[in-house]
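Quick start: what a row looks like.
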Amino acid sequence: MLGGYRIEGRRAAEIAASVERAVGAGDLEPGQPLPPMRELAAELSVNPNTVAAAYRTLRERGVIETAGRRGSRVRSKPATTGRKYVRVEVPEGVRNVANGNPDPALLPPLGPAFAAAAERGDREPVLYGEATVDPELARLARQALAAGGVPDGPLAVASGSLDVIERVLAAHLKPGDTVAVEDPGWGSLLDLVPALGLRTAPVGVDDEGPRAEDVRRALESGARALIVTDRAQNPTGASVTATRARALRAVLKGHPDTLLIEDDHGHGIVDLPLHPLAGVTRHWAFVRSVAKAYGPDLRLAVLTGDETTVDRVHGRHRLGPGWVSRITQRAVAQLWADGVLNTAEVAAAYRARRDRLIDALAERGVEAHGRSGLNVWIPVPDETAAVSRLLHAGWAVAPGARFRMSAPQGIRVTVATLAADEVAPLADAISGALGSAPTRNYV
């Protein structure tokens, strides 16, 4: 069952560490089944409860998953995965439209803002005990959030959307709780939730966002939290419409104890209005990051929410990193104040690239989705075959398996740097990879 690898240890911590080392080194591969607990206990001459405790630790760390009578196996993308399992190897000469990155040409220059922030830091050094949120950043953030209809609330700053989401989930939930997540959805989030020892409840997504009936079923089945991407949903490009927002608010009103988390990472790169859900439930969090608009290396996200949630996140953050660099915060505030990013121009550029590819695919009888953001989602009957054929044709796309749980198969194409003269060749390649009978199912 485990090939040549032998699990070792007498205590639960030792057994868990043995498995985790093997996964990290690639000796145990994603999807590989682990021995039944009693069988491993007999082999190691330990109590079955010791193995059960080791497996529980591995589940909580996101290394393995348990599927009832089918037993335990290494997760398809474990938190301890070796590098070769998480990297996309794009051969030389193959065009990479799989990476999910923004177009570097559309990112604003950061040098002047950071120079000004650093110069101020020289004059007014930030010392221990000072405010963790820069006042000017807070003022500008509140102004922008209010303009989008987000309820007023206290602010905190963390290192990106995923950092905020992890802290909010940890502030309210305990291992074993269930979180309703979009399916297809952000691959990193789908990995984070089980890594925290939480369960996932998939919620179908269409072009208007999470489907209200799916959310209702998840909450009625016991999900304690719901995570929604307001715009530029990864991988489908969905954007919550006013109609869908009303339907989702109606569902949430019937479940006021739900922890609602909204991710608006698309702010600055989309030209569709925001329709927030915040304020319907007792505990809520709204996060807005700058990675897509200003570059992934600018690790900063602003969080607002109810007082309890933000206070818990802020308090726990102070016990760890303490705060996000005030130099970084001041630089972002400078970028916002100067308006160095032409949001309308950037959003129009990304929209044109999405629309060109979607239209070209439609002309070839291929269904595709992408209302906002950097990506186009294409349902396919067999994503492994589609990815392989496209790679052979000179195009690297992202397989849908990274982004879905129970949703039908698909592939993701990042259009951020897709030139106009590349659209037709790519559309031809996708059409050819799907054959003469493209699929028509989305969720």
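That is the whole record. Residues 82-87 have pLDDT under 50 and may be disordered. The first strand starts at residue 64 and ends at 66.
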